[in-house]
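Response to reviewer comment R2.3. The reviewers asked that we include at least one raw input/output pair. We reproduce the pair for 1-deoxy-D-xylulose 5-phosphate reductoisomerase here without editing.
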Amino acid sequence: MTSVRTIAVLGATGSIGASALDVIARHPDRLRTSVLSAGTQVDALLALCASHRPAHAVIADESCFAALRDGLRDAGLATQAHTGEAALEALVAGDACDTVIAAIVGAAGLRSTLAAARAGKRLLLANKESLVLAGELLMAAANGANAEIIPIDSEHNAVFQCLRSRQTQGDVRRIVLTASGGPFRGRSRESLASVTREQAIAHPKWSMGPKISVDSATLMNKGLELIEAHHLFDIPGEKLGVLVHPQSLVHSLVEFVDGSTLAQLGLPDMRTSLAVGLGWPQRIESGVAGLDLLAQGRLDFEAPDTEAFPCLRLAWQALEAGGTAPAVLNAANEVAVSAFLQGRIGFLAIPALVEDALARLPAAPAESLEALLATDAQARRLTEHAVSQLAQSQAIPTPHE
Ligand code: NAD
Ligand code: MG
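Raw output as returned:
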């Protein structure tokens, strides 16, 4: 009989969190939710506690702790309430779970992701920003503690599956990540100046949280994924490629030295990646239907347009520069995307702000977590300042009002 996997779902109230809990609930005999975490959404977290009955629930925002504790008590649930980053790290590292789903959005997920790696847990990694910010440190921590990382990002999950037919690192000639192209595929740069928040987050193929949806619209998401692939698969930038594939059915490809190319295909639904991570090396039901290629009709491929979508080029530059450059790229992008979502800046300001931060904070060696976090903070301050100046000087009419 298989033993029961005990799972911490970090970012449980988000889009990945919901998909993960859906897969877990399909396998009560082998998968159990033991820890649930969220940022600020107490009511959503309470509802999840009522349906999944974890032993622990963590709300990051300390001002929400009383509401969580009282809500659990009033509902008659045995779930213990916790708050703050240190509590989350302790739970992730301790006996409460053997598997951690890292699905917090942004650099805010770094510490808990690192804690899972250091504690040697099975780590289902969706939080790509932590790899972009501190990829070397995170991979070294995982290797040092024998933590098993299973990428959840659909492209990297595809590559993870295709790489099972590799014997040595030298067998791989190239890894090609596919990209849907986002909601603005085919548009000119000029025409993107006035796009709204609602247009940017309306992804044609995937249903995701607001930050990654904007990243998909700017193609920064693919840029972050290049850096993610570099760390996960220990592969240099020159062996990585990007192919736009609007149907989002081929999730990525691995080309081998003998001319074979393996790809993984499936419907665009994150439950497949999560089921791979939860069941591996076994295959388990995910709730996702199989792929009917006759019904889908055709698969198209095209080169990405880095003229209209400079974020992809900027990410490639940061990957090549190495050191602190990816941390700067990620921090500037998080600040710019948040300002765009708040209606403070226009869409084209996102790449402009990232480019500016990269130019003003040249790459330095990234020796320690402290150095990376200091760079992250510096890039955030600098970009925040640039956002306020831009918002004042341009007095952009808030596009979504
Ligand atoms: P989301 O916005 O839907 O959910 C984010 C979750 O993180 C929420 O539960 C929120 O409460 C929590 N959170 C936010 N800030 C926090 C903080 N400071 N401290 C603790 N918790 C915090 O995001 P999502 O779309 O589910 O994406 C999560 C991660 O997975 C991102 O890194 C994203 O790039 C990655 N990812 C998502 C998808 C997808 O299909 N949604 C696909 C690939 C990768
Ligand atoms: Mg992806």
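Residues 11-17, 38-39, 41, 60, 103-105, 108, 126-129, 153, 206, 208-209, 211-212, 270 surround nicotinamide-adenine-dinucleotide (ligand 1) (CB under 6 Å). The chain has a mean pLDDT of 96. Further pairs are available on request from the corresponding author.
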